[in-house]
Design goal:
about 210 residues; alpha+beta; Jelly Rolls; 6-stranded antiparallel beta sheet; 4-stranded antiparallel beta sheet; about 25% helix; globular; binds fe (ii) ion
């Protein structure tokens, strides 16, 4: 038998924030997100200028965990999971530890989308899903080697997860996804009649010594 190694793998971390208090936290985050969408005029303006189909606090508020305790609680979960993911990635962190760099709310209206992008100046990025309906958009990740695949034939429609060129994950409320920040991703058009509510974030490494 030949030896076939998987190298240069791309890992996507998936967990659910569950257990005691998680339902209440999710409810609190939903209320907080709606309040921000109603009150944050700068965020509303920015979302409109950038043709974001809905509301995002991405460019207007950079202190959500300080502003509201539910975001601080979510930060605690995120950092714990980021530590596990960083260990799985075998990042050299003998002098550093993962720390939340930024966090923002996204409320994507029916018909809205978020075109493909990466998260610059960051190590690990991710999203926590607050409110998702059955037909809400997935998140779609793209093979980072795609620009180099000049002559590669398309993959089979039923190719395994590790061999696909695009991978879609259908989120659920309470789901937390993490990936390395260079991994390009997008949110296709939200075909649902309902808003799709999520909280995205960036993690950087802080010097711990
Ligand atoms: Fe993103």
């Amino acid at each position: 038998m030949p030896l076939i190694n998987s190298v240069f793998t791309t890992k996507i971390y998936q967990a659910s924030v569950s257990g005691r208090g998680s339902k209440r936290l999710n409810d609190d985050l939903k209320r907080a997100a709606i309040a921000l969408a109603e009150d944050d005029l700068a965020g509303q303006d920015w979302s409109q200028q950038k043709n974001y189909g809905g509301y995002t606090s991405y460019a207007s508020l950079n202190d959500l965990p300080w502003r509201m305790p539910e975001f601080a609680q979510l930060e605690t979960y995120i950092v714990e999971h980021a530590k596990t993911f960083a260990a799985e990635l075998q990042l050299e962190m003998s002098n550093s530890t993962p720390e939340l760099d930024s966090m923002w709310v996204n409320i994507l209206e029916p018909g809205g989308n978020h075109t493909a992008h990466i998260h610059p100046n960051s190590v690990i990025s991710g999203t926590y899903y607050v409110e998702i309906y059955g037909d809400s958009s997935a998140i779609r990740f793209e093979d980072p080697r795609l620009p180099m695949m000049m002559a590669a034939p398309p993959r089979k429609a039923n190719a395994s997860l590790e061999n696909r060129t695009f991978v879609e994950i259908k989120p659920k409320a309470g789901m937390l996804l993490l990936w390395e920040s260079w991994l390009r991703h997008e949110v296709p058009i939200n075909m649902s009649d309902h808003e799709r509510m999520s909280i995205s974030f960036n993690i950087n490494l802080r010097n711990s010594k």
